[in-house]
Amino acid sequence: MVTDSMRAEVERLKREKDAVILAHYYVEDDAQDLADFVGDSFYLARKAKELSCATLVFAGVEFMAESAKLLSPEKRVLMPDPTAGCPMAHMVRRSTVEEARERYGEDLAVVCYVNSTTETKALSDVCVTSSNAVRIVGRLPQRNVLFIPDMHLGHYVAEQVPSKNVILNDGFCVTHEAIELVEVQELRAQHPGAVVCAHPECASWVVDEADYVGSTSGIIERVVSGAEEDYVICTVHGVHHEIDLRLAATGQQGRKRYYFPRTTPVCPNMAKVTGGKVLACLRDGTGETDVDERFAAGARRALDRMLELAR
Ligand code: 13P
Ligand code: SF4
């Protein structure tokens, strides 16, 4: 919980250090409550570039802070917990990209989910997030698309853009993959008429069961603006906080109900990011993110192309 004194201290430090706090929907509730902007990974990447402050505190995982630094190299980017990584970001081999380039030549686009390392981004033609992957892949001139690292988002994109030959990699998110179809079906049986909302990082059999597929902000929006009363949510539990705030703000709290799978999806890395750590890193200037300069220019190019093609 954010106390009044904690909030006052954060406000004072933000002014003193010309800092802005960004938070992803998966971090702890009190870290979200201290943030100036809370959003999905695309929204936060765009904000990081647009803002004109000297320091960004990025309450999220490593690839998010690195993307912010790449898009805004003049800013100091601080991570409340620099050990918060994303295992999927490392699930791709350089040889996979090299072999595909060798095989398909000019008619290949390497499309990289932002949940990736700076080195992987630098090997790619364009980055995407879950909110813009379908649109961006559809706009690429090449017919062949190597989608890295996430096989499930890649599979979803392949289904949505059948004109492309999408080549899949074998990366995945442990937390989303653990959501089981049987759990979703049980919830549907218990709550007939519920709208099943899934993040495209879920396995394809869960995505196929969903009525709505979208990014974290897409799922939140679907619940808040939907006419239905019951929702099954197949993504990390952290989104509950924004849903609760927005249901309360729109007078819908008593009317709508939502349910997560029985084994509540928690991202252990996002869960490391607490309000206390946000305050500490702002105060002490710890957790500064640096990107590997050998890969920075290439990675920045792929991120900038995403911003261009997502328009
Ligand atoms: P969003 O882009 O939907 O916020 O997702 C980020 C993420 O890491 C999902 O696991
Ligand atoms: Fe990475 Fe999965 Fe956590 Fe998202 S939920 S940050 S993909 S480990």
Automatic annotation (TrEMBL):
SUPFAM superfamilies: NadA-like. Its cofactor is [4Fe-4S] cluster. GO terms for molecular function: transferase activity. Keywords: 4Fe-4S, Iron, Iron-sulfur, Metal-binding, Pyridine nucleotide biosynthesis, Transferase. InterPro entries: NadA (IPR003473), NadA_sf (IPR036094). It holds the Pfam family NadA. It is an enzyme of class 2 (transferase). The keyword Cytoplasm does not apply. Its EC number is 2.5.1.72. Pathway: Cofactor biosynthesis; NAD(+) biosynthesis; quinolinate from iminoaspartate: step 1/1. PANTHER family: QUINOLINATE SYNTHASE, CHLOROPLASTIC (PTHR30573:SF0), QUINOLINATE SYNTHETASE A (PTHR30573). This is Quinolinate synthase. It comes from Olsenella absiana.
